[in-house]
Structure formats: structure tokens, C-alpha cells
């Protein structure tokens, strides 16, 4: 019977149609199922070495000195694509210290992630141990250190620091280690002032090691003056001219007695005082107390001087006159090859009349006056030379002073020795020496003066011929013959008169 159906074309067609419809339904159903949404799988990931940040602590009162452990691991959960987008900055772990006091505490951690589609599954470990210390604050001065050197010939002055003091906050265990707060300024090659330099500060212990601390403010402003070499020296004024008749200066008081001189170091090394200032008393014509302001001149070699002027407070009084008796006359410039002696004035002393303020003149002594006869380059013979006076400041010789001295210069005599042949030219060439071919008869060189002299000579000097009145007591020669003056130049003298 089946064979008959299969032979029937109508049956075959119907069967084929039914199979086609069934096949279409199967294919269409599978397409609907496969074209629908697919749910992806959820995965986990791990982020290591995540730092712990603290929140909620009062930094003015407390300091976190330790967190153990200091880093943790996060386990994340999310889709594969979301996990792939997570960067290190998207995750953080916070430790909330709100209300926590000084001491050691074990506290939970809170994880935060800023990437969508990802959550924190676990924090490993979930708790940490934290040590909290009380903060101590103290005020400390700021110190500035230099590195490098200014340009050649320049020097750095004292730094101006703003502010000059700062507050240093640190836990009690560390505060006692802090010895200084310092900043550094580089001066290499500087030839002008450093202005408004911002300098960062750090705290240091006594060994120069940095100490972790909070410095408020942490940056200061520094100015450093850069100057050429300088030296402070006394200021000296040179008085010239004379006061009006009948008036004298009792005191001359400057408002500054030292000046600062700037210039090359070689010049400053030779500078002991600054003497370029002059005051012309004749021009001032002072008859009463007054103040005089003088500009300080810039001497050759100096670049600058501070201050640029000086003011003198001058006290003027009526003059007093006084005569100082028996002032010794001293010879300077004597030649060692000759014997130089004073013939006049008698006794090698003069009277000197001086003028000045009563207090100054009244206190004057013989030792305060130098009477000098200069015989430099004078040939042998008798000469009349002026006697110059060196007087204390503000005291003058009377207007009619005209002191003079009569000086004798003669050659040294050479003693004859019978056992030694005479040697020519033993005395300086003073002209015709034909009369000196034969040695002169020996004289008494024992040193005793033979007249009215009050001194004693020793060595190879001429004490004077017998009966000459002991002129050797006033002579000044090669350092071995006494006289009435004081030591000057290459001469040396001793005697009864006081040395000025």
C-alpha cells in the first residue's frame, strides 16, 4: 500500500510540502535564538602595592608616624572589558583617623575605585596598625648657607630674610632632633645684589642630616648684598691754618670716627687710616662754638667711602699762652761718617712758647713737644738750621717763634797705632787730604768729658779735644755718643734731659 502512495504524485507533493514547512520552521526558530543578547562572564582581578592615605586627622595636633603595613592589595570584580580599563590612579585606600588620639591603633581600611563597572571585592589586609603622635610646634630662626663664591674682588654681605623666623612642627620623638632650619643660596659669580630670591627651607639635626618636619612657611624670600672689598678704618682730619687771634679750639668731636672704604683688596691691605680730610681753620674764622660739616674726599685707589660726610662739633674758647722751658733739641738726618753736635743753644735745649685752649696748654709737659734740627745732606762745617716743632693737636707755637740751632759737623778722627803702618784714606773725602797723609796724634778716647759736659761717650766717637768744654755731650753720631736729645733715625743718644 505504501508503494501505491509513493507512486501517487499528489501524495509525494503533499509530503514534500510538509517537509519543507517543517524545515523552514526549524531554521527560523534557530535564527531567533542565536540573534538574541548574550550575557558575558564576570571576572576578578588583583591590584598590588596600593598606598594608604589618611583622612580625618588634625595635622596641627597629631602626626602619623607609622602605618603597618603601608601598602595593601585589592581584589577587583567586574567584566573583562571593565577590568581592562582600570588604571593605577583609579584605586585608592583610605584610613579614617577621625577622633583618634595619640597612641597605637588597629583600624579598618576603606577601598575606593573610580572606574565604572568594577567593584572592590576584598582588601588584603582589611585592617592596619597605625601609630599616632602628638605634634609639637616651635618657632626657629632661619639660617642661610652660601654655595659658590661671588665674582673676583666682591664680597657677600649679611642676608636679609623675610620672614626671619618660621614655625617647625614635628612629632615629639623627632622635635628634639631638630637643631636648625636652613636654606641655600648660590653666589657663584655674583657681582651685584641678589634680590627677592625664593629659598626652600629644610630642618636639620646637629650632624647636618635632614629631619622630616612641617615648616610654616616652607619658603622664604632672601636678599643678599654683594659689594666690592671693604675695610673700616679710623678717620683722621688734618688741620691747616690758624685760629683767629685770641681764640683756640678746646675740643673737636666728630659724629663718626671710622669710615668704610671700598676698593681693590691690594689697596685696602695698605690702608691703616683714612687721612684725606682737611679743615682750614683760617678759612673758617671760628670765634664761638659751632658745627662744621665736611665732605670726605675719595682718595686715589678707593672706589667708595661711607659715610660720604662727617660733622664736627667744635668748642671754641679764649686762648691761653704758656712757655715750656728746657725742651731738648734733637738732631735728625746725621751722617754716620761724621760727628754732628749742637753748639747753640747752650745745653741743646730751647724754651718754647705755645698757644691753645687753657686746659690743653695747662696739661702740656716737656715730653709732649719735639724740637727737631734736620741736618740731612749737610756737609762738614758749622750750620745754622731752623728748629722745627712737633706739637700736640690743637696747640700751636706762638706767632713770634723762630727757633734756630747752630750745628757743627766734622770728620771722625782716626787713632794711630805705633805697631800698625798708617793706612791712607781712612776718613771721608772732605776735600784736599794732602795734610792727612800722616796719622794724627792719639787723643784721649776713654769717654770722659773734659770740661763742663755732663755726659759720657763710649766706642769710636770723639769726646772732644782737651779743654773744649766737653762738647761731646751734645753730639749725635753713629749711635754710641751721648747727647741731650732722644733717639731719631740712625742716631742714639743718652743724657740727663728727658726724652720727648
From TrEMBL:
<keyword id="KW-0812">Transmembrane</keyword>
<dbReference type="InterPro" id="IPR053154">
    <property type="entry name" value="c-di-AMP_regulator"/>
</dbReference>
<keyword id="KW-1133">Transmembrane helix</keyword>
<feature type="region of interest" description="Disordered">
    <location>
        <begin position="414"/>
        <end position="500"/>
    </location>
</feature>
<feature type="compositionally biased region" description="Polar residues">
    <location>
        <begin position="485"/>
        <end position="500"/>
    </location>
</feature>
<dbReference type="InterPro" id="IPR012505">
    <property type="entry name" value="YbbR"/>
</dbReference>
<feature type="transmembrane region" description="Helical">
    <location>
        <begin position="12"/>
        <end position="29"/>
    </location>
</feature>
<keyword id="KW-0472">Membrane</keyword>
<protein>
    <submittedName>
        <fullName>YbbR-like domain-containing protein</fullName>
    </submittedName>
</protein>
<dbReference type="Pfam" id="PF07949">
    <property type="entry name" value="YbbR"/>
</dbReference>
Amino acid at each position: 500500500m505504501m508503494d501505491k502512495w509513493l507512486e501517487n504524485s499528489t501524495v509525494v507533493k503533499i509530503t514534500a510540502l510538509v517537509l519543507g514547512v517543517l524545515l523552514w520552521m526549524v531554521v527560523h526558530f534557530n535564527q531567533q535564538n542565536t540573534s538574541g543578547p548574550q550575557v558575558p562572564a564576570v571576572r576578578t582581578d588583583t591590584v598590588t602595592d596600593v598606598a594608604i592615605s589618611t583622612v580625618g586627622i588634625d595635622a596641627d595636633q597629631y602626626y602619623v608616624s607609622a602605618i603597618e603595613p603601608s601598602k595593601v592589595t585589592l581584589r577587583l570584580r567586574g567584566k573583562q572589558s571593565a577590568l581592562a580599563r582600570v588604571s593605577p590612579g583609579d584605586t585608592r585606600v583610605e584610613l579614617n583617623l577621625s577622633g583618634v588620639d595619640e597612641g597605637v591603633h588597629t583600624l579598618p581600611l576603606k577601598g575606593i575605585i573610580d572606574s565604572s563597572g568594577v567593584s572592590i571585592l576584598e582588601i588584603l589586609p582589611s585592617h592596619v596598625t597605625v601609630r599616632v603622635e602628638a605634634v609639637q610646634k616651635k618657632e626657629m630662626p632661619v639660617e642661610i648657607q652660601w654655595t659658590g663664591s661671588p665674582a673676583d674682588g666682591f664680597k657677600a654681605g649679611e642676608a636679609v630674610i623675610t620672614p626671619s623666623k618660621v614655625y617647625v612642627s614635628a612629632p615629639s620623638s623627632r622635635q628634639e632632633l631638630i637643631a636648625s632650619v636652613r636654606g641655600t643660596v648660590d653666589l657663584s659669580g655674583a657681582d651685584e645684589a641678589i634680590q627677592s630670591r625664593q629659598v626652600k627651607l629644610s630642618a636639620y639635626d646637629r650632624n647636618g642630616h635632614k629631619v622630616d618636619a612641617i615648616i610654616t612657611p616652607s619658603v622664604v624670600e632672601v636678599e643678599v648684598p654683594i659689594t666690592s672689598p671693604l675695610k673700616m678704618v679710623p678717620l683722621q682730619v688734618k688741620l691747616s691754618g690758624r685760629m683767629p687771634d685770641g681764640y683756640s679750639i678746646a675740643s673737636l668731636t666728630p659724629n663718626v670716627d671710622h669710615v668704610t672704604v671700598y676698593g681693590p683688596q691690594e689697596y685696602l691691605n695698605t690702608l691703616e687710616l683714612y687721612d684725606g680730610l682737611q679743615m682750614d681753620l683760617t678759612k673758617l674764622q671760628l670765634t664761638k662754638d659751632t658745627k662744621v660739616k665736611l665732605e670726605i674726599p675719595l682718595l686715589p685707589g678707593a672706589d667708595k667711602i661711607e659715610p660720604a660726610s662727617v660733622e664736627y662739633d667744635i668748642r671754641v674758647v679764649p686762648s691761653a699762652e704758656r712757655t715750656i722751658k728746657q725742651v731738648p733739641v734733637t738732631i735728625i738726618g746725621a751722617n754716620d761718617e761724621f760727628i754732628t753736635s749742637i753748639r747753640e743753644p747752650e745745653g741743646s735745649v730751647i724754651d718754647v712758647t705755645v698757644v691753645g685752649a687753657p686746659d690743653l696748654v695747662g696739661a702740656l709737659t716737656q715730653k709732649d713737644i719735639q724740637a727737631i734740627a734736620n741736618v740731612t745732606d749737610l756737609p762738614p762745617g758749622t750750620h745754622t738750621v731752623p728748629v722745627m716743632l712737633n706739637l700736640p693737636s690743637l696747640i700751636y707755637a706762638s706767632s713770634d717763634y723762630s727757633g734756630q740751632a747752630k750745628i757743627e759737623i766734622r770728620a771722625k778722627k782716626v787713632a794711630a797705632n805705633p805697631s800698625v803702618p798708617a793706612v791712607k784714606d781712612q776718613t771721608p773725602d772732605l776735600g784736599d787730604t794732602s795734610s792727612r797723609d800722616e796719622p794724627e796724634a792719639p787723643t784721649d778716647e776713654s769717654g770722659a768729658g773734659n770740661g763742663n759736659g755732663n755726659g759720657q761717650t763710649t766706642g769710636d766717637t770723639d769726646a772732644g779735644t782737651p779743654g773744649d768744654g766737653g762738647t761731646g755731650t751734645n753730639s749725635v753720631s753713629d749711635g754710641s755718643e751721648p747727647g741731650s736729645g732722644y733717639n731719631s733715625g740712625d742716631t742714639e743718644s743718652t743724657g740727663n734731659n728727658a726724652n720727648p
